[in-house]
Design a protein that fits this description.
The complex is a heterotrimer of chains A (about 230), B (about 260) and C (about 290). With about 230 residues, chain A is mainly α. In chain A, about 80% of the residues lie in helices and about 0% in strands. Classes of the chains: A mainly alpha (about 230), B alpha/beta (about 260), C mainly alpha (about 290).
């Protein structure tokens, strides 16, 4: 994070932006946790609360976008400050999308009406905890300006992908074998897909943090395990 | 596009005022067709440096230079080189517009000839027009070429000084904070002009305004306490500088 | 409240004091001029200007003095002005800072304050005796030149200092040599101020009498001094001579001669003022 600019109000503007992005990160992490808790415990109220909470995330996104715009106009940042503002501008989009996906998971929880009890939820729960871990690591990497943590996040996405493929295969087998509760499995497949997508978004966040710290654009590169199993 | 040989090549340049070293072991290349900006805090030696490129520095008492400044491969500080010939090939525009007040616009443009001991060529009207067009000033003054130069606005006067330098057909243009004394609109006009001029000249601009350096140059050099800290393409220097001191300067962390 | 009123009162009092300091000497001066005018006006006619001095006040004229003053002026112009300008150019444009330069500058400023009669003694020894010029117009002109030289140098230097250095820099950056810069930039811009200073110095010289007397100029000359190597007189000397005479009529003559001298000086100062104005326009108010 940029510190100790000669212009103190510039310094505090940047810190404020930093604080806001961290806030949205922790809010989104809570949403992910709550959405999976709602699924595991069939907590319909929690699901509804979480869906409503998404509106706060939307407000956060608009606020951060506006702050970035104003910083660019008023301060003409350069160097790391410029990379910081541009990165934050993109990061907020990914956070908002993760929050969105958590809301969608909750919508499916409502639709499931408890039917998920009959299905093996291990895979989904593992993916969810990995996603939460990734978000926490992203926050740490951002706070500490730690390049290696960001790289670790990118590698963790491989684990999520692996679990996703396993879970998908399992659910499809269950669907064809049992015949019943097809609808439930259909919803669970969507939830799994969204969790996998959350993992991808965390990877994007990590790539942006690497750009912010080092100025290297590492997107669209094979940092991941080259042996991807394509389904 | 790579130039075959840099237009000017500065090698291990030390600049002294008496015993005080103002610039320490600076080496850099000035390329034709490009604008090279020199930025840095006050007292970092950037003005001292640029004044050595046309041997104006030695007019200060007790000024001394060590090292080489090559113009097309020839050291301008070599034995037997007349500074006057260098100053014809390397033109300079100063911070404060300084047209000669006792001369008209027309006479100002041609003043370089008489001053450097050359005869004014027969096609003087043509020369004046070409110089004024080159400085994006012709349309504004074509009806009053013989009016006194003091009647022009600050921005116009500065463009007149540029035209005056251009009339001598220099190969290199040195601009020492050319917009410092001007309002934003005049500044924008001159920045635009610099963009147009660079295809025909090698331009070096000293500026304390980082955003201006970012706008007008392709190559930027950062000076600090008489040393060259970093030189890179403008885009790279302002987005991902390599040296922490450059980063601190451009982000406004002045310690 | 009392403090404010007191402050305002102090302001007013000081204002009045300054005004009186200006107006009182002016009044004395005007009274002097009026007195001279009243005395001498009657005597002013064409004959007065073209007649030689005489024992008879009504016949006496100022021709020798007038011609002497004008010729002295020519000599002074041709000697003091070029020397003064060149010396000022050396000190201002060429000389490097050194003990020698400081020494010269110190002397120039001190010499400007030396009483004019000392210059008369100098001229007597150097020009009249050592160079064998005798008490001639030439010697007188040279002496007066020396007298005003420090002032010409100083005022020329001031004019040169007034030319901003960035104009010189602009010339040098275009490839000019130092001489070129002086010739084409500095001198054209400074010229009117230099000339103004020169004219004012010369008008001062024209009013000097003590050095010329010491030199051996005549206060009563019965012929017109057209020979530069011959004896001469000048208007101030003529005035001095007449004032010494007991007859009241000669005092009137003196008054008339003073008026003529004042008119000449006024013409000079007007030319200087006109030049200053004209050049201000030309330089665009530098």
């Amino acid at each position: 994070m940029p510190t100790y600019h000669t212009n103190k109000s510039y310094d505090s503007d940047l810190r404020l932006l930093s604080d806001h992005i961290l806030l949205i990160a922790s809010r989104v992490e809570k949403m992910v946790a709550n959405s999976i808790k709602a699924l595991s415990h069939n907590d319909q109220n929690l699901a509804r609360e979480t869906i409503a909470y998404d509106k706060i995330i939307d407000k956060d996104e608009m606020l951060i976008d506006r702050q970035c715009l104003e910083l660019l106009a008023q301060r003409q940042p350069l160097g790391q400050d410029l990379r910081f503002v541009v990165s934050v501008l993109k990061m907020v989009t990914y956070f908002e999308r993760i929050g969105d996906l958590a809301g969608k998971i909750c919508q499916r929880v409502i639709k499931l009406k408890g039917q998920q009890k009959l299905a093996p939820l291990e895979g989904i729960e593992n993916m969810a905890s990995l996603v939460q871990e990734m978000i926490k690591e992203v926050i740490e990497a951002f706070l500490l300006q730690d390049n290696s943590r960001a790289l670790a996040v990118i590698k963790q996405d491989d684990a999520i992908d692996e679990i996703y493929h396993q879970t998908t295969r399992l659910y499809i087998r269950e669907m064809t074998d049992s015949g019943a509760e097809t609808e439930a499995y259909y919803h669970l497949l969507s939830i799994a897909k969204w969790l996998e997508r959350m993992g991808d978004h965390c990877t994007n966040l990590a790539e942006l943090i690497i750009f912010m710290i080092k100025g290297e654009d590492v997107r669209h590169q094979q940092i991941h395990n080259p042996k991807r199993v394509e389904y | 596009m790579t130039a075959a040989q840099p237009k000017m090549s500065i090698k291990n340049l030390d600049i002294f005022y008496g015993l005080r070293k103002a610039v320490d072991d600076v080496s850099l290349d000035v390329l034709a067709g490009k604008v090279t900006a020199i930025i840095g805090p006050s007292g970092c030696g950037k003005s001292t440096f640029i004044r050595c490129l046309n041997r104006m520095h030695e007019l200060t008492p007790h000024a001394r230079v060590k090292g080489q400044v090559l113009l097309d491969g020839v050291n301008i500080y070599g034995a037997g080189i007349d500074p006057v010939t260098i100053r014809r090939r390397v033109g300079m525009v100063f911070q404060r517009p300084n047209p000669f007040p006792h001369m008209s616009i027309f006479q100002n443009i041609l003043s370089g000839f008489a001053l450097s001991g050359r005869k004014i060529p027969k096609n003087k009207e043509e020369i004046v027009e070409i110089a004024l067009r080159g400085a994006a000033l012709f349309d504004e003054v074509k009806d009053r070429l013989h009016a006194p130069s003091a009647a022009l606005s600050g921005g116009q006067q500065q463009r007149l000084c540029i035209a005056r330098a251009l009339a001598m057909q220099p190969e290199v243009l040195l601009l020492d904070e050319p917009c410092s004394a001007l309002d934003p609109i005049s500044t924008a006009r001159i920045e635009d002009l610099i963009g147009e001029l660079r295809s025909n000249y090698a331009i070096v601009i000293v500026t304390h305004n980082m955003q201006q350096a970012a706008r007008v140059s392709q190559i930027t050099a950062y000076f600090l306490s008489g040393k060259l800290i970093e030189i890179d393409t403008t885009k790279r220097l302002f987005t991902t500088p390599k040296d922490q001191r450059t980063e601190d300067y451009i982000t406004g962390k002045f310690g | 409240m009392k403090e404010e009123k007191w402050a305002a009162l102090k302001e007013r009092i000081f204002n009045i004091i300054c005004f009186l300091a200006t107006i009182l000497p002016l009044c004395f001066l005007l009274w002097l001029l009026a007195d001279t005018f009243v005395r001498g006006f009657a005597r002013l006619n064409f004959n007065f200007l073209i007649s030689l001095p005489s024992r008879f006040a009504y016949k006496a004229g100022i021709l020798p003095g007038l011609v002497g003053t004008l010729l002295l002026m020519f000599v002074t112009i041709f000697v003091a002005i070029p020397l003064g300008i060149c010396a000022a150019l050396y000190l201002e444009e060429y000389a490097k800072d050194s003990w020698l330069k400081k020494f010269i500058e110190l002397n120039v400023s001190n010499l400007a304050g030396v009483p004019s009669i000392i210059y008369g003694l100098l001229g007597l020894e150097l020009f009249v005796r050592m160079l064998n010029l005798g008490p001639s117009l030439l010697a007188g002109g040279l002496t007066l030149s020396l007298l005003i030289l420090p002032v010409v140098i100083t005022s020329t230097r001031e004019s040169l200092k007034n030319i901003p250095s960035h104009l010189r820099e602009a010339g040098l950056a275009l490839g000019a040599s130092k001489l070129s810069v002086i010739r084409r930039i500095v001198l054209p811009l400074a010229m009117s101020q230099i000339i103004t200073g020169a004219i004012l110095s010369i008008s001062r010289a024209m009013g000097e009498s003590a050095p010329l007397i010491v030199l051996g100029a005549a206060t009563y000359l019965a012929f017109v001094p057209v020979n530069i190597m011959g004896e001469f007189s000048a208007l101030p000397l003529q005035i001095f001579h007449w004032v010494e005479r007991p007859q009241a009529a000669f005092v009137d003559n003196a008054a008339a001669a003073i008026i003529v001298l004042l008119i000449i000086l006024a013409i000079f100062n007007s030319i200087a003022a006109w030049l200053r104005q004209h050049h201000e326009k030309k330089r665009g108010g530098l």
